[in-house]
Amino acid sequence: MTSAELVSVLIPAYNAERYLGEAIDSVLDQTHRQVEIVVVDDGSEDETVAVARAYGDRIRLASQPNGGIGAARNHAVRLAQGGYLSFLDADDRFLPDKLERQLAALSQTPKLDMVFGHVREFVSPDLPAEEQAAFRPSPPAPFVAPNAMLIRRESFDRVGPFLTDLRVGEGVDWYARATEAGLKGLTLPDIVLERRLHDSNTGIRERDSRSDYLLVVRSALQRRRQTS
Questions:
Q1: Can you give the pLDDT at residue 199?
Q2: How far apart are CA 155 and CA 84, in angstroms?
Q3: Which residues of the chain have pLDDT under 70?
Q4: Per-residue confidence (pLDDT) for residue 87, from 0 to 100
Q5: What is the pLDDT, as a whole number, of residue 111?
Q6: Domain locations in the chain?
């Protein structure tokens, strides 16, 4: 297997013991079999590392002090050996044919840099009934976020790494920079990702950092002014 044929699926994990196994299993169950899984433990304080180690040599595991999802993703990118990169949060799941469908799109259009798809939300079934009732999953929708993306490695490198000084919004910032760099993207009509709704979603855990989204918008506007 050459690196050009290999897809590196990169999973940042922070206190993800409850759901990391499902995320990894969804990658192992892919119809496209030429996959490496890189899990980066972001300073977890629970049994995340033990869950990952239970998979043995089916995954690559690295650890770092807690630095946020951007830093963990960047660490995983540095370890990746594949010619394609795919990102997955430790509490979400891929559909079984995600990589196969996205690779087909990239193969059919050589000038295409990255492929996205649709996301389907679900309430985590392990939550008590009263907590499940508090969530309202959105209908399936297009999702131009790292979790739904497959990208050529050289295209990712043209944009550069994720910002590490944001607690939220690093994916929005990266996509804005990718657009500014002229990367060509396609969004498939297929559902490729299942996004779990639960009591520890990043949006809930980092609710005090939502002002980071404003910083992302301001930075994008500033870059536009500098290039206009």
A1: 82
A2: 9
A3: 1-2, 4, 167, 201-228
A4: 98
A5: 95
A6: 3-227
The answer to whether 195 touches 119, Cβ cutoff 8 Å, is: yes
Q: How many CB atoms lie within 10 A of CB 194?
A: 18
CATH topology for 3-227?
Answer: Spore Coat Polysaccharide Biosynthesis Protein SpsA; Chain A (3.90.550)
Tokens of 34: 């030429």
HEC letters along the chain: CCHHHCEEEEEEECCCCCCHHHHHHHHHCCCCCCEEEEEEEECCCCCHHHHHHCCHHHCEEEEECCCCHHHHHHHHHHHCCCCEEEECCCCCEECCCHHHHHHHHHHHCCCCCEEEEEEEEEECCCCCHHHHCCCCCCCCEEECCHHHCEEEHHHHHHHCCCCCCCCCCHHHHHHHHHHHCCCCEEEEEEEEEEEEECCCCHHHHCHHHCCHHHHHHHHHHHHHHHHC
Q: What is the pLDDT of residue 206?
A: 43
Give CA–CA dist 86/23, Å, rounded.
Answer: 13
